[in-house]
C-alpha cells in the first residue's frame, strides 16, 4: 500500500466521522475530524491483512479507537478546556474521557468501517479479489 491509499482513508474518516457526529449530536469539533481521519487510516491498515476476521478487526479497532480517544480527550478537555465531550456521567469511565459503553459503540462502528476499508482497497486495486470476496458484497 502506498501513502495515497492511507491519505484517501484519512480523508474518508475525516469527513465521515464528522458527519456521524453531526448527525448524532448536532455538532463536531475540528480535533474530532482529525481523530476520525487518523482512526480510519489505522483501521485501513488493520483491515489490509488477509488473516484479520471481522470480529478481530472490530475488537482491534475498538481498542485502537479508545486508545486514541484517551490522549485526544485529555488534551482537548482537560488541558485545553475545550469541553468537546464528557463521559463523566457514563458508567465505567476513565477521567470522563473514555468509557466502556463507547468502546462497545466503536466495536459496532468498526463493522461498516471494515467494509469501507475493503472497498477502498478494491478501488485502488491493491488487494487480490479472492482475499476480499469472503466478506464483501458485490458491487
Helix content: 55-70%
Structural class: mainly alpha
List unreliable stretches of 5+ residues: 129-133
Largest sheet: 2 strands, antiparallel
Mean pLDDT equals 91
Whole-angstrom Rg: 16 Å
State the distance separating the first and last CA atoms: 22 Å
Per DSSP, what share of the residues sits in E-state strands of 2 or more residues? under 5%
Q: Please provide the count of β strands.
A: 2
Mass-distribution shape: globular
Number of helices: 5
Side by side, the strands of the main sheet go 1-2
Number of domains: 1
Query: What sequence of helices (H) and strands (E) makes up the elements?
Result: HHHEEHH
Topology:
Layout: H1 3-25, H2 30-47, H3 54-79, E1 93-94, E2 98-99, H4 100-124, H5 129-132
Antiparallel strand pairs: 1-2
Walk me through this protein's architecture.
It is a single chain. The chain is mostly helical. It has one domain (3-132). The protein has five helices and two strands. A hairpin with a 3-residue loop joins strand 1 and strand 2 (98-99). The two termini are 22 Å apart. Residues 129-133 have low confidence and may be disordered.
Briefly summarize what is shown.
With 139 residues, the protein is mainly alpha-helical.
Amino acid at each position: 500500500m502506498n501513502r495515497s491509499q492511507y491519505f484517501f482513508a484519512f480523508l474518508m474518516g475525516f469527513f465521515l466521522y464528522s458527519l456521524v457526529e453531526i448527525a448524532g449530536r448536532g455538532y463536531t469539533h475540528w480535533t474530532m475530524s482529525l481523530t476520525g481521519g487518523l482512526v480510519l487510516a489505522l483501521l485501513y491498515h488493520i483491515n489490509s491483512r488477509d488473516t484479520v476476521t471481522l470480529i478481530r478487526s472490530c475488537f482491534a479497532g475498538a481498542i485502537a479507537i479508545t486508545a486514541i480517544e484517551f490522549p485526544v480527550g485529555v488534551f482537548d478537555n482537560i488541558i485545553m478546556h475545550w469541553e468537546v465531550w464528557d463521559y463523566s456521567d457514563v458508567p465505567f469511565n476513565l477521567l470522563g474521557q473514555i468509557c466502556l459503553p463507547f468502546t462497545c459503540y466503536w466495536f459496532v462502528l468498526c463493522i461498516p468501517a471494515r467494509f469501507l476499508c475493503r472497498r477502498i482497497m478494491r478501488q485502488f486495486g491493491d488487494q487480490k479479489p479472492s482475499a476480499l470476496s469472503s466478506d464483501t458484497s458485490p458491487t
